[in-house]
Automatic annotation (TrEMBL):
InterPro entries for this protein: Aldolase_TIM (IPR013785), Coproporphyrinogen-III_oxidase (IPR034505), Elp3/MiaA/NifB-like_rSAM (IPR006638), HutW (IPR026332), rSAM (IPR007197), rSAM_sf (IPR058240)
Keywords from the UniProt entry: Iron, Iron-sulfur, Metal-binding, Methyltransferase, S-adenosyl-L-methionine, Transferase
Gene3D superfamilies: Aldolase class I (3.20.20.70)
Single GO BP term: methylation
One Pfam family named in its UniProt record: Radical_SAM
PROSITE patterns hit by this protein: RADICAL_SAM
Organism ancestry: Bacteria, Pseudomonadati, Pseudomonadota, Gammaproteobacteria, Aeromonadales
Radical SAM core domain segment(s): 50-279
Keyword hit for Ribosomal protein: no
Designated name of the protein: Heme anaerobic degradation radical SAM methyltransferase ChuW/HutW
Superkingdom of the organism of origin: Bacteria
NCBIfam families noted in UniProt: rSAM_HutW (TIGR04107)
Cofactor: [4Fe-4S] cluster
């Protein structure tokens, strides 16, 4: 049995701060799926077959932003109004064709996520057209329809258009309320403007409002973070995500750091303290933790799409740069807008990568979904797999990252902070110690449904 520190974490008196060296990714997966050569005839045949999935969602990608934030490496296209409207027209036509297909109609969808980019930068007319295209799909009565974006530019006309179109959940990237921190991160609006807008949108509880916060931003010291938590709790939002800033290549933040212009930024230990403070304060204030990074103030917030994505639900992707899965096959569309437009105009599949099905997809979704929530139900694991994983789980318990509560493996505060590392370690463990066979060779894979990662 091979166990490494990247699987188990380190033995340390302070696991929250030192169990792992760093968090280097926002997601983890097993990998190992091989590419599939699929021609247009095969692609069209897929849309004639009914789905066999138990749960389904739509992911719709809008890859435009008016401004590039300092920490973001997902910036793809400037939000030129004419360019966006052309894209939205083609996207809605693609959605309509998919919705009318036997595959699209075969089973209902319980969640829709419109991500980016900054989808709220689209014009109100395009937003109305998008909502109409979404409603052509068979949606469950209580379907969660999320529109992602920023508060700046999301005026009352867009708000009312979205509500009328059926959107019932909005996820806004606040990142920090502090005006100076926001300016350094190249964000719009000051603290007072943000709080006023959030209070206006949440005043009548017409829809669920979620705010994202990032800890570890330049200039965001402990006092600023404490005020950020106080502000989000007082803002009226129904849910909040706490994401750690992850240094990524190609960002303006990285370039500023290389030139020595970054200024003060929290180190690893300070970030762990920020996470702990945020988690404790929210929970002491009556907020319920739904995952290792998400809390809700009321039961109206379900965070359904995010949980489905972790569990491995069938997620149909649309738009340049979107990712998901169809009939168990991973799918990631290319980001090139010209190639995307050209393919759709010709009635062809948009350029991208198709992967063969992962034979362990159901179990991987169970493991990933459980760890993401912080609670892994051991009784749901097949007995051979459960026995196989126990040495790893026991090491996590020894290292202060998890504890056994009956038939549940519960992550500690430290385990929740290092949750993505634990997921990656678990898949590394299964790769190095396969059940009854040789270790598989990792291969490229497109991952799950893509949306703007804020952490």
């Amino acid at each position: 049995m091979r166990l490494t520190p990247t699987m188990t974490g380190l033995s340390t008196p302070a696991p929250l701060a030192f169990a792992f060296t760093a968090k280097t990714s926002a997601h983890a997966s097993r990998g190992g799926a091989a590419p599939l050569m699929l021609d247009d005839a095969g692609w069209r045949a897929w849309w004639q077959r009914p789905s066999q999935a138990q749960e389904r969602a739509l992911y719709i990608h809008v890859p435009f932003c008016r401004k590039r934030c300092s920490f973001c490496n997902f910036f793809e296209n400037g939000a030129n109004p004419a360019r966006m409207s052309r894209y939205m027209a083609a996207l809605c036509d693609d959605l309509q064709r998919a919705a009318e297909s036997p595959f699209g109609q075969s089973r209902p969808f319980s969640a829709v996520y419109v991500g980016g980019g900054t989808p709220t930068d689209m014009a109100a007319g395009d937003l109305s057209r998008l909502a109409s295209a979404i409603r052509r799909f068979p949606l469950t009565v209580d379907a969660e329809l999320t529109l992602e974006g920023r508060l700046n530019g999301f005026d009352d006309e867009k708000w009312q258009t979205a509500l009328a179109g059926g959107f019932n959940r909005f996820s806004f990237g606040v990142q920090s309320f502090n005006t100076a921190v926001r300016q350094q991160a190249a964000r719009f609006d000051d603290r007072e403007t943000l709080l006023a807008r959030l209070r206006a949108l949440t005043r009548h509880d017409e829809a669920v409002i979620v705010a994202d916060l990032i800890f570890g931003l330049p200039g965001q010291d402990e006092a600023v973070w404490r005020q950020d938590i106080a502000d989000v709790m007082a803002s009226g939002v129904h849910g909040v995500d706490l994401y750690q800033l992850i240094s990524m290549a190609g960002t303006n933040l990285e370039r500023a750091q290389e030139k020595g212009r970054l200024g003060w930024a929290a180190d690893g230990q300070q970030r762990t303290a920020m996470y702990a403070y945020g988690a404790h304060t929210l929970e002491q204030g009556g907020w319920q933790r739904l995952s290792c990074s998400h809390w809700r103030r009321t039961d109206a917030e379900q965070s359904r799409y995010n949980q489905m994505a972790k569990r491995g639900a069938e997620i149909l992707p649309f738009g340049a740069g979107a990712g998901g899965n169809i009939h168990g096959h991973g799918l990631m569309y290319g980001r090139d807008l010209a190639a995307w437009h050209e393919a759709l105009a010709a009635g062809q599949r948009a350029p991208g990568m198709v992967m063969r099905p992962n034979p362990d997809a159901r179990l991987d979704g169970l493991l990933r979904g459980g760890l993401d929530s912080g609670w892994l139900a051991l009784g749901r694991l097949p007995p051979p797999l459960r026995a196989h994983l126990l040495p790893l789980f026991e090491r996590w318990q020894q290292h202060g990252l998890a504890e056994r509560i009956g038939e549940t493996l519960a992550l500690t505060l430290a385990g929740r902070f290092w949750n993505v590392n634990l997921q990656a370690g678990l898949f590394e463990y299964l790769q190095s110690n396969p059940l009854g066979g040789e270790a598989a060779t990792p291969a490229a894979h497109p991952g799950g449904a893509r949306h703007h990662s804020r952490g």
